Amino acid sequence: MNNLAREEEWALWMRSAIAGDTHAYHNLLTAITPHLRVMARKRCEQWGVPSSEAEDVVQEVLLAIHLKRGTWDFSRPLGPWMAALVRNKLIDSLRRRGRRVNVPLEDVISTLESDAGLDVSDRMSIEQILGRLGDPQRTIVQAISIEGSSVRETAARLKMTEVAVRVALHRALKALSARYSGQLK
Fold this sequence. Notes:
This protein has 185 residues and is mainly alpha-helical. It contains 9 helices and no strands. The protein folds into 2 domains: 35-117, no CATH class; 118-185, Arc Repressor Mutant, subunit A. Helix 2 packs across helix 3 (53-68).
């Protein structure tokens, strides 16, 4: 299958998933996950980040796709949207670890153009997903993954160590991923 045909198939599955087709959503996630891994590993390599970070980035991207799928513009290809999510999640990961990353202005502009506000159904989905977590995991995921707070800020607010916040975030995202994957089967 060539790239154009693959992109069209992914877009079809994404449109169907947004319309509520869980089978199409499962097909999409199954098909894109290997490609997300390749993109994440390539970005890690480019930025001198250990390849062990790639899988965490992939998991965060899959969660972001679920939470932000309604922001995808049907008239645009899915690949560049996912590539922007991989780039952004890797940058977020590096920020949480205290590493600075310089991102070209053109990349920021293209990301801003694709980031629309969450609509009511997205907020309901977020609330339902976060409702599956207990505290402090729910608060940590909300603060870091949704509100964009740093690990340091979240740790200070919750009176926890930064390491404890990172561990809780990782475990929460892993638990959400496991729960969500189970729903699709």
